[in-house]
Amino acid sequence: MSNLHFSLVILTVCLISQSSGKAGVHIISGVPDHPSPLQARCQSKDDDIGTHTLLNGEEFSWRFRPNIIPTTLYFCHFYWGAKDRSFAVYDARISRLCKQDDYWNCDYYWVATPTGFNVSADNKVTWKTLNYWN
Question: Which domain of life does the UniProt lineage start with (predicted)?
Fold first, then answer.
């Protein structure tokens, strides 16, 4: 099999996998409701997910198809009382946390805590702290 033919087969398999899968981002409030509930405004360059107000323990999520070239970026701006923080909740760096072979079908769980933000890419089994409140 020629190198070109082999490359086309690999590219076709990747495109089929990518087109059938969707990644998910979940935002969970782990902060007390006082002084105020958690607010999160999330978006990408093309999609505005909107602003969500979450009481302790509540969650919102969305699904999307990541680009085959890892350029997909979603970010959120979080507000809790006088604190705020903005960062990427999905990008090439975050996608590498996925323990599956197929990151296109992975779910990324973010929980806001009183000290910062933890992420899990293995269905909430292990958590990694990646960001802190400003």
Answer: Eukaryota
β-bridge partners, 62: 25
Contacts 24+ apart (CB under 8 A), 126-134: 128/97, 130/87, 131/85, 131/87, 132/85, 133/80, 133/83, 133/84, 133/85, 134/83, 134/84, 134/85
Rounded Cα distance between 49 and 38, Å, is 16
- Which CATH code is given to the segment(s) 22-132? 2.60.40.10
Give residue limits of the domains in the chain. Answer: 22-132
